[in-house]
Amino acid sequence: MNFNETAYNAFEKEMCETYPKIFSQPFGGFAVGPGWWPIVKSLCSNIQHHIDWKTKQGHDVPQAVVAQIKEKFGGLRFYYDGGDEYIDGLVSMAESWASHACETCGSPGQSRGNGWVQTLCDNHEQERLDKK
Q: Which pTM value belongs to this model?
């Protein structure tokens, strides 16, 4: 996977500054490729919007706080504490979305590999094979 440290640092800073309640505890960073960053960003936006809206309505939804975000077996894993059933559904939907998106670029992808499984588009799968 291509890794651009500058882009990663900018993404991490943006996320932690935009969603300080979600990233209020140490969580180990974003251990996913840049193709999934928009999915994580959309998920966090929807989580915080839901919590803020429910709170304004007088409902008590525990703040969702990220414990870990990573790729495992070619899929997005978003581990968190707090939230409610609606947020559970948002996370399931984001994880499902990622299972069909290239982790490198975000284009349509599929699970690939026999040992290290990744979700990749045809182009990034070919790049991976060419490096072998």
A: 0.93
**Domain of 98, in residue numbers:** 5-130
What are all long-range contacts of 48-57, with beta carbons under 8 Å and residues at least 24 apart? 48/19, 48/21, 48/22, 50/86, 50/87, 50/90, 51/21, 51/83, 51/87, 54/84
Domains in the chain, number: 1
Q: What is the pLDDT along the chain (132 residues), one digit of tens a residue?
A: 456 899 999 999 999 999 999 999 999 999 999 999 999 999 999 999 999 999 999 999 999 999 999 999 999 999 999 999 999 999 999 999 999 999 999 999 999 987 889 999 999 999 988 887
